[in-house]
Amino acid sequence: MTQRTNRARACALAAGALVTATALAGCGGDTQPGGNVTVTVTPTVTASSASKPKPAPKPAAPTSDDKGRAFEYGTVTKSSKVGDTTVLEIDRWTWKGLDDTKLARSGVPTTPFKGKEPYTNQNAKLTYTVPVADGARVLVHHCVAADEPLQTKSVDAAALADLPARENTVLFKLDDKGWLVSADNIPGCPK
After folding, report:
1. For this UniProt entry, which residues form the secretion signal (predicted)?
2. Distance CA 62, CA 68 (A)
């Protein structure tokens, strides 16, 4: 080889080295090992309007076992709630000498009684479910003495389950669905 060829080859190698060094310097000109690195993250938020919680279903409206009667007479054995509605369990009583058909149509006298009770309970095992209508009028009467006026107060229908003996029988007026719209207990005056 000629000297000229060697020199051309050396110049080409030097030029290649210079290009490689320049390229490497552009990639990482930082002289400190482990240089700072910045990473940018953009969060993505996905919302769906279809994931709204559904409201709890409303309980079914209670039904009456006394549909078709205008009046019911007896004692309240239990009071409960179905949703926002008060529901009474009624033990039906019989007014002595009064046919049940007539009682169901016309009711019983609501005046206080003296002495022996004018009613009887012929079946303590069978009860009737009667829901209480909104705005029902419920009155509790108390007889202090036969010659004194009755003491009367308005109460919540649930209080009818806690009436004392001789004051715990109640005349219930029902609407066409068998729901209680008014109630009056029939008190016995002290003997």
Report:
1. 1-25
2. 16
Q: Which residue has the tokens 């919680």?
A: 53
pLDDT class of 56 with cuts at 50, 70, 90:
confident
Q: Per the structure block, which two tokens stand in for 79?
A: 């009071």
Tokens linked to 88: 């009474």
CB-based contacts of 182, cutoff 8 Å, min separation 6 = 136, 137, 138, 139, 172, 173
pLDDT tens sequence across 159-181: 999 999 999 999 999 999 999 99
Q: Where are the domains of the chain?
A: 71-189
Please state the separation of Cα 100 from the chain's center in Å.
37
Cα torsion angle, 155, 160, 161, 166, sign? positive
The rounded percent of the chain whose pLDDT value lies above 90 is: 61
d(CA 90, CA 124): 10
78: helix, strand or coil: strand
CA distances from 74 to 14, 146, 190 (A): 118, 22, 20
Per DSSP, the residues of 118-171 read SEE-S-SS-EEEEEEEEEEEEEEEE-S-TTSPPEEEE--GGGGGGPPTTS--EE
Q: Is 188 exposed, middle or buried (0-12, 13-18, 19+ CB in 10 A)?
A: buried
Q: Is 51 exposed, middle or buried (0-12, 13-18, 19+ CB in 10 A)?
A: exposed
